[in-house]
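Two proteins were folded this term; both appear here.
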Amino acid sequence: MHRLPLLLVLVLVARSAFAAPVVPGLDYEVLPGKFKGGPVHVLRVDLARLRIVQTDPSKVLQRSAAAFAKATSALAVANSNFYVDAAKGPPVGLLVGAGVVAQNAVRWYQPPTFTASLGFRRQDGLADAFDSLNLLHGPAPRCFTDVFTGSEWAVRGGVVPASSTSTDAGLFARHPRTVIGLSRDRRYAFVFVTQGRNVPVGAQGYTVVGAASVGHVALEYGAWDAVNLDGGGSSKLWVLALGGLKNSPTDGQERLVAYHLGVVAASTGAIPASCSDVPDGGATRDGGGLGDGGADGAAPDARGALDASGPADGLRGGDAEVQGRADGLHADEARGGRCSMSSSDDAGIDGLALLVGLGVLLVCRRLRPIRRPRRG
């Protein structure tokens, strides 16, 4: 008669070890990682409950994650876009924050590098992945209020890129990475921050392209599309309810950066009538994906952005290496992958816990109490 309580206890233990709900809609866990790259810190964000925001380009400051959180009421913070070496340095690639497009954005290297973008809309939580080749200075497709652009796709359409035509050597080297991604159904956003550079000892970090790509970790977690953001010593993950900084920065302390990613409470508002949820040839919530910028009616950029075979003088050479991370798969998604517990998963038991529970039940059914001789 003690079998059922025992089973329930083991199931609950398995669940608690799987992921820790921080607040409703926000989960945090640490993965052991792969390829000797080191631990991976992961946030899963339910976009039906929370929103992802970018630094407002009109309010750029080189600051800590805690300072950004205070300014934006963020529940969690990570670093975001690469940028030129200055306290208010221009971002690399399309950047939109609070509906404002950074008009001083530049490019590093020749495209297709720094054209991989993820967009988010604060009014309703809509999100998607798209190529921003012709959108360096906007406009943002589908009236996305917040856009993040990285050096390369870590995962694109459920596939980890096997190669890149970029001349950016950092894509092929091992470093700490920061990656933002989306689930296939676009309900969940994910932030991955990895260790590396022998912090902790033995952690080699991850590439963006190649066998040791962080994209493989992201894909196994459930990423359908994921973008490699700034990383190296800039990589950081800060969670308010968990005491602040969760990763171990390779500088020995948190690096102040100009651009941050924040997880905030959901907000609502009117969506401009000119914005279409499903533009012609565009994306749907099943992860169809937007095409490049030109496909969304935007004229090619004519501002003479910095397009060179390598970083221009003054760029942050210490972090010209790409960083990466991806996205997540909820237990109710159709594709077979890793299931993760969320505070919003009230309706059932996640896959791992269920398997543990069934295993215990089978063992219990095979056991029989030892019958001792009855003494007269």
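Next, the second protein.
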Amino acid sequence: MRLRAPLLLSTLLALGACTIARDPSHLEANIIRPGNFMAGSGVIESIGVLAGESGKRYRLSLRMDNGGFQTVDVDSERFFQGQAVELTNDGRVVLVSGTAFHVPR
């Protein structure tokens, strides 16, 4: 009887932690100046808010998987520190899902 409430609570918390994105636009953002970056994957180290004439913009500081570091300005607030992302050749930042990364040698 005493075990039922904690078990129910832990089950609800576990289910609440699972998220499903049905709209792909929730997993990506557009790079504002697409010519100033190199495509590749990395991890978000920090996020800053940029005040501008056209609304809020966000600066992502990325530690790239190839050992480099770069910053990109994006138009979306959907990213958090520590998330794995990929910078695509067409000027998007896409959230990477999964548990393993392939690191080229």
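The CA atoms of residues 9 and 15 lie 10 Å apart. The two ends are 55 Å apart (CA to CA). These notes refer to the second protein only.
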